[in-house]
Amino acid sequence: MPALFMRGGTSRGAFFYGPDLPDDIDLRDRVLLAVMGSPHPLQIDGLGGGHPLTSKVGIVSASDADDVDLDFTFAQLQPESTEVQTRANCGNMLAAVVPFAVEIGLIVPVEDLTTVTVRTLNTGLVAEIAVHTPSGPHGHRVVEFEGDTPIDGVNGTGSPISILFRDTAGSIASSLLPTGQRRDELSLPDGTAVEATLIDNGQPVALLRASDLGIEGTETPEALEANTSLTAAVEHLRLQAGELMGLGDVTDKSYPKMTLVSAPSPGAALTTRSFIPHTVHRSIGVLAALTVATAACMDDTVAAEMAQPGTGSARTLHIDHPSGSFPVELRLDGDTVTRSGLTRTARTLMAGSVFVPRSVWAGYESDSAVSPIDSVSPIDTIRAQPQGSNA
Question: What is the DSSP string of 206-269?
Fold first, then answer.
């Protein structure tokens, strides 16, 4: 099957043109599991990298909505699970959507800066994404991948991709504060009560004080994952948070993201360690960072008491994480976030065909001897030569 392998922000995965995948969801998910090599801890028989951050898929199509250009479905796979989750958002993979669409000819740039409206079908989240598209060596415009913009958690620098979000409150939960409160009470396994802020401004997040779980909040992800009593406590709290947020039984879900907060470094707004949910993020998710920044600006949240959120209606909050800091741009009316934005980078790593075992297609009728998908993909035009500036 034709595919591009891409990095978006601090994540990585396979991207597909939507019509190239089966309409049947069960079959589609079997295909994606085979592509990524799940279930296996190393995903050794697929493209997955043995970690949730490198076990992702993007599916992109032209949108039929009047005010939207592209539809994007994000699929989260886990190395050792057969579940394909498509309910949550991923702001990092979102950064690669427009570059992918330009690479395959789904979007044809006409200016040096191409702005595209993208709807994430997982939750209905809409974003305006701006990508640099200068004239290439053959006279047509290409995605500029190289540049001077660094993002913590990725080596080197790249061309900035600007993402401006619309109406992020209540992406999966019913509202920004699904319990109606800025602080709720959860219970540790021993019955001890701890306070949490349960909030969803693009990603369901449960914010807890790191000190309430007996840690500093600056430990490495490896140290936190090795602390089995901590990971058990976090999961115990996550199940409670899911119920309180109206998300039901989240045992097999990747949300809410459990984010432990502590005092920031100089110049930052807050320090975080984010469980996603059973491993610790090596940085922090885009929409989790946005949600944390939102909580930091709101009075009486768990985050607010230790945060340094700055002042004014327009602010940039730097959210510390294990790999550095994540800048989030907010515009506020009082302590209500009215607009939010951020900058990511992306890059096409490989273009070509990914092979799916015949057994995956068992029972699926097709006349094709090569692929069961009866469509002509725009990706066919770039199998031999991607269009981007890093080709």
Answer: EEEEGGGGTS-S---HHHHHH-HHHHHHHHHHHHHHHHHTT----TTS--SEEEEEEPPPTT-S
